[in-house]
Amino acid sequence: MNASPTRVAGSESAIDVRGVTKSFSGKVAVNGITLRVGKGEIFGFLGPNGSGKTTFMRMLCGLLTPDSGEGTCLGYDILREQARIKLQLGYMTQHFSFYEDLTIKENLEFVARVYRIRDRKRKVREGLDKLGLTGRSNQLAGELSGGWKQRMALSACMLHEPRLLLLDEPTAGVDPKARRDFWDEIHELAAAGLTVMITTHYMDEAERCHRIAYLSYGDLLAQGTTREVIEQAGLTTWLVEGGDLFSLASNLRRLAAVEQVAAFGNCLHVSGGAAGPLLDQIKPFQVEPYRWRPVPSSLEDVFIHLMQRKKDNFS
């Protein structure tokens, strides 16, 4: 699969790195990544746990120094100007990282002091109001639900008006309504010129990104729009309904040309590489009471396909 970087037409570069590599104890966590993200773009990072997504983001924001490679983030050198980069970005970590025994307002006031923001009281009021936190401003952060913690964290990340927002699985454990509201806010921020890089395991969230990249155990295997990544994978997928699907799935998984058999409600998705060999092997099963039809491969199908191509480099 071609994983070469795709230029964003008519877009100024916010991130432009080449050959970025990082190892820990002799194990390569990020292996020679070359990537470009345009200003105002929402860029999604996909991959299994331990694939290097968070390590790469930490190198971008100056928390880790690459072993090799070069490039810029927000126009600053990622090797020599890390302090300047930190002042220009907001980083929302995977786990809630604020003081649970302080109120929402007190947490925001603390962040405003850290960044030495002028007119702190006004900025905190605006931050509370923008994300609908004003009515809860005196509530302890530790008492908030996942969705409200997420809003508070996003508000804190935006207080100093960053040019780049790094979000590390920000919606894990958040209900669907809160996730949709969160994404509406992200698209509004991007429309105003903010660049967003986000890691996620939710396929519907990946499809909300302008472009995505798939990282598997340190290697960048694919990048582009959702449609481009699906097309590059070269998967063929059939949908099957009817009959004893559990028994059918067991039989299909024994076929050499079948890569995946996944249950989706009252049907199966059956995927493989080349269309011809796959059809030849499933043809004996295309009889009553089963109903078969070809369908477009989903991003989840591609995710599993790419995941199966690489083994954990830390195992």
What does this structure look like?
The protein is of the alpha/beta class. It has two domains: 13-230, 3-Layer(aba) Sandwich (Rossmann fold); 236-296, 2-Layer Sandwich (Alpha-Beta Plaits). Helices cover 33% and strands 27% of the residues. It contains eleven helices and 14 strands. Strands 6-7-8-3-9-10 form a six-stranded mixed β-sheet, with helices on both faces. A four-stranded antiparallel β-sheet has the order 2-1-4-5. A hairpin with a 2-residue loop joins strand 1 and strand 2 (27-38). Helix 8 (226-233) crosses helix 11 (299-309). It is globular.
Write out the strand line-up for the largest beta sheet, numbering strands in chain order: 6-7-8-3-9-10
Distance between the termini: 24 Å
The sequence of SSEs as H and E is EEEHEEHEHHHEHEHEEHEHEEHEH
Instruction: Write the CATH architecture name of the largest domain.
Output: 3-Layer(aba) Sandwich
CATH class of the largest domain: Alpha Beta
Helix content: 25-40%
Shape: globular
Q: From the helix content, strand content and strand pairing, which structural class follows? A: alpha/beta
In the predicted model, the low-confidence regions spanning at least 5 consecutive residues are 1-10
Number of domains: 2
CATH overall fold name of the largest domain: Rossmann fold
CATH superfamily of the largest domain: P-loop containing nucleotide triphosphate hydrolases
Could you tell me the number of beta strands?
A: 14
Radius of gyration: 22 Å
> Helix count?
11
